[in-house]
Amino acid sequence: MLEITNLHAEIDGKKILKGLTLSVGAGEVHAIMGPNGAGKSTLAYVLGGRPGYEITEGSVTFAGQDLLAMDPHERAAAGFFLGFQYPVEIPGVSNVQFLREALNAQRKQRGEEPLTGGEFLKLAKEKAGLLKLDMDMLKRPVNVGFSGGEKKRNEMVQMGILDPKFAVLDETDSGLDIDALRVVGEGINAIMRDPAKGVLLITHYQRLLDYVQPDVVHVLAGGRIVKTGGPELALELEEQGYEAVA
Amino acid sequence: MSDVLTHPTTRDEDWRYSDAEYLASTSSDELLHWTEWTVAPGEVKSEYVTLLSGPQARGTVQRTRVHVGKGGRLEVFATLAGGQYQRYELDVTLEEGAHFEFGGVTLGGDVKLQEFVTRVVHAEPNATSNQTVRAVQWGKATGNFLGRIEVVRDAQKTDAAQNFRALLLEKGASANAKPELEIFADDVKCAHGAAIGALDEQALFYLASRGLPPVEARKLMVRAFIADAFVEISDDAMRDQMLEGALAELDQGAL
C-alpha cells in the first residue's frame, strides 16, 4: 500500500531522513520506534505533505500513486490520514463544522455525494462514542481547551469519521493515561484493522503495542531504518534500549 | 473634545490614516456632517451597517453621534468592504448604567482604505462598553481602528473594553491601530488590545491534512476570525447575514 524508497529529506538545509526504505502492505500494522531525533516526526510530516521539508531523493508510492506529488488535501482525499503528535488548536472553527466540510471536500474530489448535516452528525456521534469523547467537545472550537488526552482522542474521532485507507499515527500514545491508552488502542483497531487498510504507528514506547499488535516493527535511527523484525523486537527494545538492539 | 470645525486633512490627528485625495475632493459639508441619534433611558437600539462593494461613490464618510440614556443599550455592527475610502465614525456618550456594543469588520484589497473611528464617553458611573474590530486586508489595502475611550471624573465602575485584530492575507496590506484612553475616574476597568498578523500556517496544514482544499481552509479561518466581531448579535439569522455578507466580499484570489 505504502512504498517508501530511499527517501532523503531535509529542513532548512539540515538532512533528517537519509535513505529510508519501508513497505507496508494492505491489512498490515507496522510500528516505527526510535530514539529522539531519529527522524520519526519528520517522516510523518513528509508523508503528510507539510510545507518546509525538501525531498532531495527517493520516492513514496501510495496505492499506486506518487504521494509526494500530491497536495496535503489531495493525499487526504486519496485515503491518507496523518494523526498529529501535537494537534493544532484553531480558535473559532468548530470541530463538527470543519470535519463536515473536510469530509465533503474529500467526497467531492472522489466524485461522491456530500453527506447531509443529519447524516454527518450521526456518523460523528458514532465515532465520538467509540472513542468515549463527549459530543459537546466536538461542537467546540478545534482542540481549544482540550487536554493532551482529549486532543489525541479527537484525532482518532477524526480518523473514524474520515475513514482513511492508510493512517500514519505520530506518537498518538503520548500524553495518554492508562485508561485513555486502552480506549485509543481499541479505537485504532476498530477503525483501521481491515484487510484493505494499513497503519504506520510511530511510537517511543511498547505500551500502545500491547493494544494495537503490530505485524512488523522497525527501528529508525539516524534517518534510516536500521533494524526490522516481528512484534518481539518491540519487547527487546523496551528491555534493552535502542543502543543495545540497533 | 471639540469637533473638527475646519475641513479635515491628514495633518489632523483623527484623520491621520485617511485618504488625503478623498478629503481634498470632498466638500466640508459632507465630511463634517453628523447624524444624531438618541437612545432613551432603558431602551435598546440596534443598527446593522453594511457598506459593501458595488456601484457606489468612490468613498464615503459617515459620522454618527449618539446619546445613550440611563440603562440604555446601543448596539452597532458594521462591515466596510467597498469603496476606495470608507470611514465610519461613532461618537457615543453613555449615561449611568448604559451599554455600548460595537462589532466592526473591514475587509478589502486593491488600495482600499477602510477605517472605524470611535469615541466613547463614559459620562456617568456604571456604564459599560465593548468594541471588537477585525480587519482582513489584501493587495495594498489598509484597515484602521482609531478608538478613543474617555472616562470622566465621576464615572466610577466604568467597564470599557476595546479589541482590534488585523489579518493581512498578503504582503503589502497594512493595518493601523490607535487606541486612546483618557481616564479621570479611579475605580474603572479599561482594557484594550491590538494584534496584527497573518494566517496560521500550522492550522492551515492541519485543515488541509483532513482534506480541505487550501482556499476552503483559508476561508474557514477568515470566517472564524471575523465572527468575533459579530458574536454579540443576538439574532441568529442577522448574525449569519452579516457574516455571509462580509465573506462574500472576500476575493478568492487573495486566499
Question: What's the helix and strand layout?
Answer:
The complex is a heterodimer of chains A (246) and B (255).
Chain A: E1 2-11, E2 14-24, E3 29-33, H1 40-48, E4 53-62, E5 65-66, H2 72-77, E6 80-83, E7 90-94, H3 95-109, H4 117-130, H5 135-139, E8 141-142, H6 148-162, E9 166-170, H7 178-192, E10 198-203, H8 207-211, E11 216-221, E12 224-229, H9 232-245
Parallel strand pairs in A: 3-10, 3-11, 6-9, 9-10
Antiparallel strand pairs in A: 1-2, 1-4, 4-5, 7-8, 11-12
Helix pairs in contact in A: 4-6, 6-7
Chain B: H1 20-24, H2 28-31, E1 35-39, E2 44-51, E3 59-68, E4 73-80, E5 85-94, E6 99-108, E7 113-122, E8 128-137, E9 142-151, E10 159-168, E11 174-183, E12 189-197, H3 201-209, H4 214-230, H5 236-247
Parallel strand pairs in B: 1-3, 2-4, 3-5, 4-6, 5-7, 6-8, 7-9, 8-10, 9-11, 10-12
